[in-house]
Amino acid sequence: MVTRKDIAQMAGVSVSVVSRALNNSGYVNKDKKKEIIRLAKEMGYQANPIAISLANKRTKQIVFYCKELENAFNIMVYEGMLETAKKYGYMVMIQADLDFEKIKTMMVDGLILPNEFLAQMYLDQVGRNYSIPTVCATYGNPVSFSRCIPVVESNAWEATNLAMNYLKNNGHEKIALLMPYDYNVREVRAYAWKSLVQYTFGDNIEKYYLGISKEGLGNDPRVMHFLHEQSSNYRIDDSFFEKGELGAHIFCERKLDATALITFNDEMALGFIKSIKKLGYSVPNDISVVGIDGIFSRRYTDQILTSVSLNPKEQGAKCAEKMIKILNGEKYKYVSHVPLKIIEGETVKKMN
Amino acid sequence: MVTRKDIAQMAGVSVSVVSRALNNSGYVNKDKKKEIIRLAKEMGYQANPIAISLANKRTKQIVFYCKELENAFNIMVYEGMLETAKKYGYMVMIQADLDFEKIKTMMVDGLILPNEFLAQMYLDQVGRNYSIPTVCATYGNPVSFSRCIPVVESNAWEATNLAMNYLKNNGHEKIALLMPYDYNVREVRAYAWKSLVQYTFGDNIEKYYLGISKEGLGNDPRVMHFLHEQSSNYRIDDSFFEKGELGAHIFCERKLDATALITFNDEMALGFIKSIKKLGYSVPNDISVVGIDGIFSRRYTDQILTSVSLNPKEQGAKCAEKMIKILNGEKYKYVSHVPLKIIEGETVKKMN
DNA sequence: CTGAAAGCGCTAACAG
DNA sequence: CTGTTAGCGCTTTCAG
Question: For residues A92 and A108, what is the distance between their CA atoms, to the nearest angstrom?
């Protein structure tokens, strides 16, 4: 490996001069500069990024600490970061091995977390005696770290409201909710839905909440194979789709008279739609479905899924932007918001 | 930031002793060692990975240089790497910004490339005057770098043969091929298919090759919007699905009497199936479909897709393993192979 | 405009 | 067993 020292020797100058020439900083004789640059090229010189980082105390690298990469949503978030960070000369890498200890050994300037739950875990596990500039993508869920980590929020509460409004405007009254959690879990989509359907469903409300989880379904054997979930530190979470499928069965069994359904995310919607059709329902004639996410798998179904987009790409972009502001010591807002929008598909029936 | 020097001062020893204690190397007085470790914890010491890397001349990091992350196949490859590398104390990160120059500024020990085409581009663009241990996942395509980069091959030629055999065993004779390339492009699936159907189709062979590309379809306006493809350095390649959809239309227009179709990958199969059903065909009654990949989106369609799995996870694992052998200076095979297998789904009709 | 020198935080002989 | 010393490759004063 050729170093600046080698070039200096060849050029008959000192390393400082070589550094200044190559970095375009400080005074260097024009001719010498040219010669140095020429030599560097000729000798195939490549700056050692590690040495630079050690001296500068910054790496120009940011890590996105995210598992569940099979979920296109996260990829879209990453894509947004990547583009924005690039503009500022930063690189963003994905690190999917969720070993929090390992994060301390990473050569990066900052850390971006994909949701508030992970942020909470992170703070609990390593937050005490370790700190690196951190930004978190959030979804409006109630968490306690609110004041510790700057966030970029794509509000799932609002998203649920949007979905509800859209369905109501299309004449739907009885709207069920499909979730991967128990009825009692504090989740913002559930809050939004509950407050809006309370009057409609009254005491029956819980029936219209399809909570696909061990707690929610008790000993239902069909849910038991989702138990593997907690088992491995890193796993392909392929269960949203399956949970959606199971949701369809439960929907039938409960003989729900809902004309529409909102799902936790698009993946669950896809699973639900596949199974509900097999069970003899037609989408959207018998049941309308609205997902939340806005990922491109929406297109996979026979009818393109109607979804509330959480705008993952913009969220990612804003995360990167905020991170870079922090690293540059610039002013930044503690909380920023990402606008949402309905992406109309073909899974909602117009009742009016 | 507290350093080993600080700890040394506190403990009244030299940095070497601290280093030896913390690294568990060389002789250190037992009591002093304990005290040092205690102090380190108490003072919240965190080793600086950059300094360690500079001194050791290795980072214990590997980069997987891969765009098209929205394609679950690549994610599965990554997942395999991740797990294997972890066992050996290595981290694998994804870098999706395909700026080859940037690769030189990365603080990693090795580079894994996702396919032979990218490897070719890499060698052409930066291979001359830069070199870092590199491993490439390949698919049996004819490329010229064979001697420069160790590869882990999941052979798509074999996969195509497997698919053909499977279809033949199920009584299919006329088997079409759906590809994202022109008929004349050198691609290994096409080779395999051509040699097996030549006798069946004779001069008509080209009709049964559905090549969804600008060159293949000439001025067909429906293919024109795929032209954006070359435009950006990083892009979400969402076009396989759409190309599959277009493939269905062309299939109808050509009034093909094929009873089965093999597709370049699973994504294309999903697109094809969605559209061919809209055009009034039933899958698998009117047309059987076999994909190549074995990704989990297979499940999204009403009938689970039958596919030849290229075993992405194992391929990724082997890539990581080979890389680590190289880095450790151990012996390794230049070419390794990944076993393939048919994953039966519901998209192939038994004709016999 | 240039070069010597100190330093980034850690490793690894090697003499004691 | 311990401490000194000389790096790793680059940056950045600061005196000349």
Answer: 9
pLDDT digits (tens, 9 = 90+) for B92-137: 999 888 888 888 889 999 999 999 989 988 888 886 667 899 999 9
pLDDT tens digits for range A175-202? 999 999 999 988 899 999 999 999 999 9
Q: Residue B48: list chain A partners with CB under 8 A.
A: 54
Which residues in chain B are closer than 8 Å to A86, comparing Cβ atoms?
Answer: 97, 99
Q: Are A37 and A7 spatial neighbours (Cβ–Cβ below 8 Å)? A: no
Q: Are residues B253 and B184 in contact, defined by beta-carbon separation less than 8 angstroms? A: no
Residue of B nearest to A82 (CA): B97
What pLDDT, on the 0 to 100 scale, is given for residue A85?
96
**Closest CB to B49 among A107, A274, A296:** A107
pTM over 0.85: yes
Cβ A178 vs Cβ A272: under 8 Å: yes
Q: Are B275 and B289 in contact (CB under 8 A)?
A: no
Distance between CA atoms of B153 and B77, rounded to whole angstroms? 12
Q: Which of A34, A39, A14 is nearest to A24 (CA)?
A: A34
pLDDT tens track for B232-282: 333 335 589 999 999 999 999 999 999 999 999 999 999 999 999 999 999
- A61-155+312-338: CATH topology is Rossmann fold (3.40.50)
Q: Which of B73-87, B208-222, B295-309 has the lowest mean pLDDT?
A: B208-222
Domains A61-155+312-338 and A156-310 share a fold: yes
Listed by start position, the domains of chain B span: 4-47, 61-155+312-338, 156-310
Assign A26 a pLDDT band (cuts: 50, 70, 90).
confident
Q: How far apart are CA B261 and CA B281, in angstroms?
A: 13
CB pair distance less than 8 Å for B54 and A49: no
First-to-last alpha carbon distance for chain B, in angstroms, is 73
Decide: CB of A3 under 7 A of nucleic strand C.
no
CATH level 3 topology of A156-310: Rossmann fold (3.40.50)
- Any residues with CB less than 8 A from the CB of A56 and at least 6 apart, and which? none
